[in-house]
Each structure stands twice: as C-alpha cells, then as structure tokens.
Design goal:
With 371 residues, the chain is mainly α. The protein has helices at residues 3-18, 21-32, 38-62, 67-72, 78-90, 95-107, 116-132, 134-163, 175-188, 191-203, 209-236, 249-258, 263-293, 300-315, 318-350, 356-370.
C-alpha cells in the first residue's frame, strides 16, 4: 500500500474507532450548556475527548500494541480486574446501553410513540443476531457508515449554522464553568478506554513511526473538527433545545436544519452507527465473560445473551440516567487513567519506573475533592 494511502486509511480508522454514540451527543450538550462561551467549552472537550485518547494510542503504540503489558505495570492482578472494569463500562453497564438509548432518540423522530423498553428489546435481539455474524456485517457497515455519517453531519452543520446566526449567540454565566463542563463531558466519551482496547488492532499494521504520527494527526484533526462543529451547533440552537433529551438533540437539529423530509435519513444513519458500535462492544464483553470469567464453561450464545440482558436493563434508565451513574465513576477514575497513560509513556521514553503511587494519589485527590 502506498505511503499516503496507508496514512489516510489509518487516520480514518482511528477516527472511526473513537466516533461512537457518546461522540454524537456530548459535544452538542457541551455547546448547549456553554452559556455562549462555546470556544472554552470546545477547548475543554478537545483536551479530554481528543488529546487524551490519542495519548492513549501513543502509549499502546510504544508497547507494540500489547495492552496486557501496558496494563501490567499496575501489577499482575490488574491484567484481569482492569479489563473487567473497563469492558463493563464500555459494555452492558455503560456505552453499549447508551448506544441503544441514542439510537432510540433518533428513532423517536421517525416513530415518536415507540417506548424505550420495547425499542431496546428489539435492538438487543438485532444485536444478538448480527453479533454472531459480526465479521462480515461490521466490516460492511463500518466501511459504508463512516462516510455516510460524515456527509450527514456536514449537511446538518452547513444548513444548521446557516439557519442559526452564530454571531448572535448570547453570552452569560461563568467562562470557567463552561470549560470544566467541556472537560467533564470529554471524560464521558470514555475514548481513553477505547484507545487501550481497540488501538492494538491498528498497531499490528504500523511499524513506521512516521506513518503512525501522520495518521494520528489526521484522526485527531478530523475528530476535533467534528467536535468543533457539534459544539457550535449546540450553542447556536441552545435556546430552542430546552427540554429536549440529550440523545434527541442531533435529530432535533437535523429536523430544524434539513426539514422533516431529509431528517429521517440522518436519523437512520445515527441508528446504524450506534448499531455498529453496539455489535463490537457486545462482542468484546461477551468474549471476556466466556473466556476469562466462565473459563469456557458456557457457550457464546449464553454469554452474549447475558450481556444483552444487562444492557437492556441499564438502557431503560435512559441516556441521562446512565450518565448519572457513569459520571461520578469517570470523574474519579479518569484522571488516574490519564496519569497511568503519561507514566507508561514516560517509562518507555525516559525510563520512569514509578506508577502506583501517583495513580493512587490521583484517585485520592479526586475523592477528597468530591467529599
């Protein structure tokens, strides 16, 4: 493969790896809650939603894609307990369930009377069937959906920003609060965890440092550009989004910007994007449950079924309910994960050996702050 094509394809793969359900919602919420200080809000989510995840990719890259070695610096027990914690949050207790609620939010703009519990049951059934055949289907959906979703977002951005006068965004409230909102919502994308577990697949193809850094620049720039547009849209439409659930914001803006005829197409793209992410996350947790917890004593169907039953129950809490559960957990643990990433990078580059004490200090400092 030619150098330029390898760089571009890897950069797009990095972008796709991070761009899931939360990435369609949290930047919009950040803009909506920015009180007009959208630039500072964007800076906050840029730091924790773009820079930090790509530091995670760099960390795993320096360990040659070996996530076990990366995590193993915390000690041997961490190679079991850390993946269990992380995959639980990314799987049925967090992001997987959140994917279902975001897809439901988009679907409600097409069929507004559909209850979440029913949509979730059908959605989990579809995920179960497609996960069994995930290789072919995820590859097909992924290769088609990323361009379709980007085109849809570009259309919403163009017509939305033209429809709403950005220059007239009212400014109020405290600028620092807007910045910290951006930082906190960046935590909730959980993309640093995704970097730990997904980027190892990319690392197997990258032996050239130049390709890695160029591809990372493309992926980070594209992700940051999409976040900037979504934050701007959230700020511009904020007065008209009062009372709209977080998971329905993008679809609502699509209706305002594109009209009732074009918006359903965007909503279908959102649903399919959530479905693709959900298949991958369900498969990851089900594999871990089957191999590491049950030690191959249960079939894959039972493991996957258990995963989706949990996801269904958690999804009924709705997007806001899931965020309330994940928010405090991530607020305490995410700084520690950032410290782990920096220390592991420092170990490979500068030979830093200290790891447990700074991480424990980061967790303790956050707990004290909460108390």
């Amino acid at each position: 493969m030619k150098h330029s094509l390898l760089v571009l394809s890897t950069g797009l793969a990095m972008f796709s790896m991070f761009f899931g359900s939360g990435n369609l919602v949290f930047p919009l919420v950040v803009g909506q809650l920015s009180d007009g200080h959208w630039a500072l809000s964007f800076l906050g989510i840029l730091l924790t939603g773009v820079l930090v995840p790509f530091l995670g990719i760099l960390g795993v890259y320096l360990y040659n894609g070996n996530t076990q070695e990366f995590i193993g610096r915390l000690g041997t027990p961490a190679t079991f307990w850390f993946p269990l914690f992380a995959l639980s949050l990314m799987g049925p207790f967090g992001v997987l369930a959140r994917c279902i609620t975001v897809a439901h939010g988009a679907y409600r703009l097409i069929a507004p009377e559909t209850p979440l519990w029913l949509f979730s049951i059908v959605g989990c059934g579809v995920i179960f069937i497609l996960t069994i055949q995930k290789r072919r289907i995820v590859q097909l959906l992924g290769s088609i959906l990323t361009p379709v979703l980007l085109v849809s977002l570009a259309a919403i951005a163009y017509f939305g920003l033209a429809h709403a006068n950005v220059a007239k965004i009212a400014v109020s409230g405290k600028a620092w609060t807007s910045f910290t909102q951006g930082v906190f919502r960046g935590y909730q994308t959980m993309d640093l965890l995704a970097a730990f577990f997904f980027s190892s697949f990319l690392m197997k193809q990258l032996n050239d440092h130049k390709v890695f850094f160029q591809a990372s620049l493309i992926g980070a720039t594209l992700l940051g550009a999409v976040y900037l547009v979504l934050v701007l849209l959230g700020a511009a439409f904020a007065p008209r989004l009062a009372g709209i659930p977080d998971q329905e914001i993008l679809g609502t803006i699509a209706q305002m910007a594109l009209g009732s005829m074009a918006a359903p197409v965007v909503c279908v793209a959102i649903i399919l994007a959530c479905l693709t992410t959900a298949i991958v996350l369900a498969s990851l947790f089900a594999d871990f449950l089957k191999k590491e917890i049950a030690h191959e004593r249960i079939p894959m169907a039972a493991s996957l079924g258990s995963t989706l039953m949990i996801a269904w129950a958690i999804s009924t809490l709705e997007f806001a309910g899931i965020a309330k559960i994940l928010g405090p957990i991530l607020d305490v643990t995410y700084p520690a994960l950032i410290v782990l990433t920096l220390l592991n990078i420092g170990y490979k580059i500068f030979g830093w050996r200290t790891v447990r004490l700074p991480i424990a200090a980061a967790v303790l400092a956050k707990i004290i702050t909460h108390l």
